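> call design_seq(struct)
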């Protein structure tokens, strides 16, 4: 019989006729009280004083019923023992239930984690500050990428993305990179199989976008790229590029220079100067490398710019006619320019970071600075 059923019966109905029976009955009540006061599941979502009310409330509580049905109707010879047991039980309930409630609430609250062993038996201190969860922040690479995207969006460019697992055709062939080019070598390229690679640059998206949209076309292509490089301070097997492509009628190298000059001044500040130097890439003709004046020494020479006053930041050029043709665009009618830059490298220059590995180590001491 459950304790709730027993407390509504009299001692006579419970066949308790002597002192030993009374003590056994009260012992049973204590066990029930003890068990209930440890039943976190039962009280977790109840009002804070539900456990106390169940046992000690003035009306209809367990103790009120015991008083009513056991004590007041006890046979004369059992009145003293019932009285003693009842008073002891009442004191015990008063002493223990509040503590038990505090324990239950504490076990499920953040205070349980901040409290020390010594104060666990006390009610939580409501004047303590709340439990604070930090929000995190934008990764510096993402931050720089968004900043670049914003500059080009302002110039009317659209953002385009493409697959990181790419076919050999889009990664090399369509970009006019011959079979013999050293970048196809296993040392540089991570091959999935003979016809599939992890893209080594964002340029394959140029071809995909030309096929998809045709001309005119103004896009920037941010994303991850992969090369078989040993990780060191300036190399990572996974890195981030931003590619730019403009295709239209009457596009010249002057448009390219003007656009990149505007971009660099927006990104690094008005005082930055650009230097274009001839270079070679299979997918552009003519090709160039772009240097920016060192923002650390302002062109005077320092360790960051290797005493030259200039830092190489990207490759660029006029899109090779064969590449336009491969993208389905008539090179006799349209011309285009393109550039490719390392987002990681721009972030390193912008924030004065000397090791690319820091970006990818998830070290909060580093990341929380951004
Ligand atoms: Zn310098």
């Amino acid at each position: 019989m459950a304790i709730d059923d027993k407390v509504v019966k009299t001692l006579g109905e419970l066949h308790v006729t002597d002192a030993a029976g009374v003590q056994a009955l009260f012992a049973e009540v204590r066990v029930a009280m003890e068990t209930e006061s440890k039943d976190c599941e039962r009280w977790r979502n109840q009002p804070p004083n539900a456990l106390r009310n169940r046992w000690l409330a003035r009306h209809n509580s367990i103790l009120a019923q015991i008083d009513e049905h056991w004590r007041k109707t006890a046979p004369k010879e059992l009145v003293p023992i019932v009285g003693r047991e009842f008073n002891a039980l009442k004191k015990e309930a008063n002493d223990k239930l509040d503590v038990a409630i505090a324990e239950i609430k504490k076990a499920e609250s953040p205070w349980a984690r901040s409290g020390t062993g010594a104060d666990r038996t006390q009610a939580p201190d409501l004047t303590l500050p709340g439990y604070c969860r930090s929000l995190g922040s934008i990764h510096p690479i993402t931050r720089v990428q968004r900043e670049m995207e914003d500059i080009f969006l302002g110039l009317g460019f659209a953002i385009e993305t493409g697959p990181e697992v790419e076919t050999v055709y889009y990664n090399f062939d369509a970009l006019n990179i011959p079979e013999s080019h050293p970048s196809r070598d296993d040392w540089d390229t991570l091959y999935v199989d003979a016809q599939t690679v992890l893209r080594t640059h964002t340029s394959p998206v140029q071809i995909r976008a030309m096929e998809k949209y045709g001309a005119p076309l103004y896009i920037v292509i941010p994303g991850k790229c992969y090369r078989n490089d040993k990780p060191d301070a300036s190399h990572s097997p996974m890195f981030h590029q931003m590619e730019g492509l403009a295709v239209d009628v009457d596009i010249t190298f002057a448009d390219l220079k003007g656009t990149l000059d505007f971009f660099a001044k927006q990104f690094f500040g008005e005082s930055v100067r650009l230097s274009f130097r001839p270079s070679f890439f299979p997918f552009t003709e003519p090709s160039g490398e772009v240097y920016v004046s060192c923002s650390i020494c302002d062109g005077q020479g320092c360790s960051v710019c290797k005493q030259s006053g200039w830092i190489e930041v990207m490759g660029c050029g006029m899109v090779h006619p064969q590449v336009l043709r491969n993208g389905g665009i008539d090179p006799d009618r349209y011309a285009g320019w393109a550039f490719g830059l390392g987002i990681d490298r721009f972030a390193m220059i912008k924030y004065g970071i000397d090791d690319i590995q820091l970006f990818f180590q998830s070290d909060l001491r580093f990341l929380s600075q951004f």
